[in-house]
Amino acid sequence: MKDPNYFITGLKNNNEKVILEIYQKVFPNVKYFVLENKGQHADAEDVFQKALLQIMARVQVKSFQINSSFEAYLFVACKNLWRRELNKRKRLVTNDAVKEQGSEERELARSILEQERWEFFQEKLEAISGNCKEVLKRFFNKMSYKQIAEELDYNSESVVRQRVFKCKNKLTETIKKDLRFKELKEL
Predict the structure, then answer these.
(1) Residues with Cβ < 8 Å from 94, sequence gap 6 or more?
(2) What is the Cα–Cα distance from 89 to 22, expressed in whole angstroms?
(3) Are 133 and 125 in contact (CB under 8 A)?
(4) Per-residue pLDDT band at 114 (split at 50, 70, 90)
(5) Across residues 102-124, what is the average pLDDT?
(6) Which of 9, 93, 136, 168 has the least CB density, counted as fewest CB within 10 Å?
(7) What is the spatial distance between Cα 121 and Cα 175, in angstroms, rounded to a whole number?
(8) How far is CA 98 from each of CA 94, 106, 108, rounded to the nearest angstrom?
(9) Between these two residues, 109 and 23, which has the higher pLDDT value?
(10) How many alpha carbons lie under 13 Å from residue 12 in its C-beta half-sphere?
(11) What is the pLDDT confidence band of residue 24, given thresholds at 50, 70 and 90?
């Protein structure tokens, strides 16, 4: 696994070799995800391009640290963009009217903000106790209370419910204590 800075520097310098390597490593997974979630090949290409532009824009504005692999970071950015696109399509169908699409710049800014919020959330999730982290990760991945109890060796589902409640409160408290919360919330 290559250092994330290798890819970030490559994007920043518009290095075609690095960009091609990113496409070869990450695009197949993005395409699979989009196709499995009501999308087409063209949708996967669009999402991938937007995510790369989002990262490139962030790199140009300020330096930022990727704590996982670059590939995982880009994939999560693509997943978030695709989910957002699906929600937007759902709203358009639900409202049964064509809404004016925002400018590309506004969309890019929203994507960047959404990614920053996601990273902030992940950072705070990593900051809470190990047990809480494990319980909440399973809970957020829609695992049943029964499964969580079995995997983490709790006595019952009600104990897990109580633990989830306490851990969510602890996570919320940790998030709200950080000064960046207000910034990210108001944008």
Answers:
(1) none
(2) 28
(3) yes
(4) confident
(5) 73
(6) 93
(7) 7
(8) 10, 18, 21
(9) 23
(10) 13
(11) very high
pLDDT the model gives residue 92: 60
Q: Compute the average pLDDT of residues 158-187.
A: 82
pLDDT tens digits for range 47-94: 998 888 888 877 777 776 777 788 888 888 898 889 888 887 776 654
Can you tell me which residue has the tokens 């047990």? 131
User: Following DSSP, what letter does each residue of the chain receive, concatenated?
Assistant: ---HHHHHHHHHTT-HHHHHHHHHHHHHHHHHHHHHTT--HHHHHHHHHHHHHHHHHHHHH-----SS-HHHHHHHHHHHHHHHHHHHHHHHHHHTSPPPPPPHHHHHHHHHHHHHHHHHHHHHHHHS-HHHHHHHHHHHTT--HHHHHHHHT-S-HHHHHHHHHHHHHHHHHHHHHSHHHHHHHH-
Work out the number of other CB atoms within 10 angstroms of the CB of residue 159. 14
Per-residue tokens: 94: 């639900």
How many beta carbons lie within 10 A of that of residue 156, not counting itself? 11
